[in-house]
Backbone:
């Protein structure tokens, strides 16, 4: 089957393509768990990451993934450390970097659609590491891998995403992927944090956390970003936690074998209680481990598509 | 319980004409009250022996109307902040005298009621001082400044029943967010629709009168523009909206259309708006100064029609006490507002007398519908077994003069002082206890 040329989002992927990434990721995870640390798969290749927003997990695991596969890795911090600060455009920046003949460009940008823009101008594979609040495909893939590890199959599972869904690329990519794989998805938060016409995404909206989590197999918590854009959406983080925070009492309402996920970074005590984040049901750190395996899979699959391996 | 009035001993009210459209009650009958609840609503004589065994106080209601106690959705008592002008104590006596068994404390206090600590504090004050029940409305925005949301959820959890800023939220983005956020807690947002820019420095309705008197005017557009804006946002968000004190024909037409469309909108007006026009300001008497301002004859007509046809759901008093000195000023500098708890009923009865409103509709406007808006349907504002023993006994034929001696409010800013009225409150019962007779 035809491998994707880029990875820009989940919305345009078919189920087979998603399975390609997930199954490869599963294989690699097994090998990593078995102690494998270095492959030669991408020896001689170079991955360039161009990030216009801060990142710990995504950036770290792309670098880890590239290096485990034997590739070289160059990170460029977009705004302050490149000539973007001197007025150079995104397209010029990318084309100039491409002129140095790297093999992959991993982009994180605060504008939705930035990767789509670059694809028009570049020949090398572009991997979206998060664009605005549009998509974060590798996050959704690693989340799916984590869910499948626990439940075997995603089909028929009830997944609830809680928090600022309206401004979350993690939520969007997850909603696309989970629905494609047959899960029942609901979102929960005050109406001000849920996207307009939420039902059109094929998800159920809940304004009550208790309602939203009582039947869920997976509860995915999102970070509340109480910076300027949320100034008018919620009165305070204290009130948010009071009604939508996953406290230990609320967590007791969940099914016995349900799992709690979070893409990170967490605001302990805002969207999730510290003891819940570190508790038995939490798979948050597993997600991070799976992130390396998934990003290795993504690099490998795209390389196969280009017939480099 | 947010009243100091204790659970009453048994009361047996006999021979009155019972009116409660919420349960289709419009006939002669007897009512038995005990331990703060209505324990029996029945035929004349039905509870004779039970009343005796309860050692109930007997009240003869012959020739009178027994209605559910009225509920005011717009009582603007500054407690805390201006207790010397009027506090929950005196306001509640005025309320009881006017037939109101529940008043709604709007967030016009200082400090602003925009957080749960204030809800607790005001509830405590109400419990200590108020002879009638008090329901609380919290602010929509922090400090009522219209810049960001107040902790609405926390106030509702602490007992508030609705939110409102006692003034417009000019930022449409924030108004939208407020309507959406309130959906989380299923409470209405009470809107005072006025565009501050168009109000400008106006002090009375814009028209021939303001022209003649040399006073700056407030055009009906100032209200109508915000009514339309709020309705469009209500449609867009699916949020629940209640308009306080609408005053113009244009506003009524807008609300009528919105209701035809099925939007979750309710609205009220206050008695001075359908009983007076800006003609009354001819003598520059600041007791006629209010916001929104008194309007024109055609607006009064539209309001009365709307009260009858359901476009307006209820009557609120907009009871706004002011000190004598703040009213003893040139019209444009005087404080706005009128007290209204004691004159709301007789002014509304004038419309019943003029056959513009039915008595049953009046009870809907004063009791059934306010209970609905506040989420108290079935509990209060109704005469039925199990409901709160909050009732009012009315003598529609009694005439009296609303004067300084009779008035119970601590404030005197009413243009109706000295006026003769027909239709008196004979007895007001809260929690099964008589608080006014």
Residues:
């Amino acid at each position: 089957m035809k491998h994707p040329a880029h990875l820009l989002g989940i919305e345009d992927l078919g189920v087979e393509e998603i399975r390609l990434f997930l199954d490869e990721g599963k294989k690699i995870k097994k090998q990593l768990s078995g102690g494998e640390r270095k492959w030669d798969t991408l020896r001689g290749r170079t991955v360039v990451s161009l990030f216009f927003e801060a990142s710990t997990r995504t950036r770290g695991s792309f670098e880890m993934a590239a290096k485990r596969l034997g590739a070289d890795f160059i990170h460029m911090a977009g705004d302050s450390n490149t000539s973007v600060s001197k007025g150079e455009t995104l397209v010029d920046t990318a084309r100039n970097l491409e002129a140095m003949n790297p093999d992959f460009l991993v982009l994180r940008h605060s504008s939705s659609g930035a990767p789509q823009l670059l694809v028009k101008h570049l020949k090398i594979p572009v991997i979206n590491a998060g664009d605005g609040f549009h998509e974060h495909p590798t996050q959704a893939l690693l989340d799916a891998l984590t869910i499948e590890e626990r439940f075997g199959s995603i089909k028929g599972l009830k997944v609830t995403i809680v928090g600022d869904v309206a401004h979350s690329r993690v939520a969007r990519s997850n909603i696309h992927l989970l629905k494609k794989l047959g899960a029942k998805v609901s979102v929960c938060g005050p109406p001000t944090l849920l996207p307009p016409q939420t039902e059109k995404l094929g998800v159920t909206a809940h304004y009550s956390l208790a309602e939203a989590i009582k039947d869920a197999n997976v509860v995915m918590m999102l970070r509340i970003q109480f910076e300027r854009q949320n100034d008018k959406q919620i009165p305070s983080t204290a009130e948010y936690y009071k009604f939508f925070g996953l406290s230990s009492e609320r967590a007791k309402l969940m099914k016995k074998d349900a799992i709690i996920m979070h893409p990170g970074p967490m605001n302990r005590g805002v969207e999730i209680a510290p003891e819940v984040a570190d508790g038995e049901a939490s798979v948050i750190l597993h997600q991070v481990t799976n992130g390396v395996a998934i990003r290795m899979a993504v690099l490998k699959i795209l390389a196969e598509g280009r017939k480099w391996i | 319980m947010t009243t100091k009035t204790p659970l009453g001993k048994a009361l047996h009210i006999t021979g009155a004409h019972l009116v409660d459209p919420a349960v289709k009650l419009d006939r002669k009958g007897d009512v038995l009250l005990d331990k703060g609840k209505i324990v029996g609503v029945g035929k004349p004589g039905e509870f004779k022996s039970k009343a005796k065994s309860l050692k109930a106080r007997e009240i003869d209601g012959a020739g009178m109307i027994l209605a559910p106690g009225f509920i005011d959705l717009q009582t603007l008592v500054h407690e805390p902040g201006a207790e010397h002008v009027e506090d929950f104590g005196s306001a509640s006596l005025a309320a009881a005298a006017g037939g109101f068994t529940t008043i709604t404390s709007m967030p016009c206090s200082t400090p602003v009621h925009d957080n749960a600590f204030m809800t607790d504090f005001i509830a405590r004050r109400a419990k200590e001082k108020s002879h009638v029940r008090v329901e609380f409305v919290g602010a929509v925005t922090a400090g009522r400044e219209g810049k960001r949301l107040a902790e609405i959820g926390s106030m509702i959890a602490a007992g508030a029943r609705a939110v409102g800023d006692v003034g417009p939220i000019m930022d449409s983005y924030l108004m939208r967010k407020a309507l959406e956020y309130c959906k989380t807690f299923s409470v209405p947002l009470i809107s005072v629709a006025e565009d501050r820019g168009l109000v400008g420095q106006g002090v009375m309705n814009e028209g021939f009168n303001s022209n003649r008197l040399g006073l700056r005017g407030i055009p009906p557009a100032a209200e109508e523009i915000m009514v339309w804006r709020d309705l469009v946002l209500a449609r867009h968000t699916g949020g629940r909206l209640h308009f306080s004190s609408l005053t113009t024909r244009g506003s009524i037409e807008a609300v009528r259309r919105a209701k035809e469309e099925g939007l979750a909108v309710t609205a009220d007006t206050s008695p001075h708006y359908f009983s007076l026009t800006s003609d009354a300001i001819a003598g520059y008497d600041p007791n006629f100064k209010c916001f929104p301002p008194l309007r024109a004859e055609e607006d009064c007509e539209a309001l009365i029609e709307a009260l009858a046809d359901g476009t307006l759901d209820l009557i609120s008093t907009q009871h706004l006490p002011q000190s004598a000195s703040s009213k003893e000023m040139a019209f444009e500098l005087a404080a706005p507002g009128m007290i209204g708890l004691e004159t709301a009923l007789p002014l509304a009865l004038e419309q019943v007398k003029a056959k513009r409103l039915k008595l049953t509709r009046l009870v809907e406007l004063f009791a059934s519908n306010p209970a609905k808006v506040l989420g108290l349907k079935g509990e209060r504002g109704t005469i039925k077994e199990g409901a709160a023993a909050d009732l009012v006994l009315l003598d529609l034929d009694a005439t009296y003069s609303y004067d300084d001696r009779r008035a119970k409010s601590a404030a005197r800013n009413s243009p109706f002082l000295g006026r003769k009225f027909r239709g008196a409150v004979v007895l007001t019962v809260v929690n099964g206890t008589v608080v006014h007779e």
Summary: Residues 31 and 153 of chain A are 21 Å apart (CA to CA). Strands of chain A lie at 46-51, 72-77, 104-109, 126-131, 158-162, 184-188, 204-206, 218-221, 259-261. The interface with chain B takes residues 190-192, 207, 231-236, 238-239, 242-243 of chain A (CB under 8 Å). The first strand of chain A starts at residue 46 and ends at 51.
